[in-house]
Amino acid sequence: METSPVDARDDRIPLADPAKARRGARRTVFAGIVLVVLLTGFTAGGTAMLAAGEIPGLPFAVGGALAQAAVIAIVAAVLRARTGDGGRSLSRSGAAASLRILGGLRRLLLVALVALAVYALVRLVLGDPWTLLTAAFISLFLWLLYRGAGRIRRDWTSSV
Predict the structure, then answer these.
(1) Which stretches are transmembrane (predicted)?
(2) Side-chain half-sphere of 157: how many Cα atoms within 13 Å?
(3) pTM
(4) What are phi and psi of 123, to 5 degrees?
């Protein structure tokens, strides 16, 4: 599939309120930093549980690391569309790349949610109810990230 070259002048979408967009980008970065720091507890705790031989820590270790990577990907995707032009406009090509990143992230998060559910159910059948609890808890965070990435995609698709 071949695409036509993009004219640099037509690639930008002017923003109605650039100051609001800059505030939104700052809030996204701040929230991303806070979430990555807070999710570190789940990743480290799950890894420590695994090191101690506690299998219920696996959802925390894997899910926490995936949640941290997802937060970083969402922040990077949001900032990717806002590069250049001093924040007065959005780049169509940057927004399209961000939409692709968010789409891939949503697919990855959905696969992880299904895998965590299957793993927790298998462990429950084997007599380990604690894995179900840890998988459900970290799945809540992954589900919220899945929904957030979908909301950003939906809003950007309608505006681009």
Answers:
(1) 29-52, 58-79, 108-126, 132-149
(2) 10
(3) 0.82
(4) -65, -35
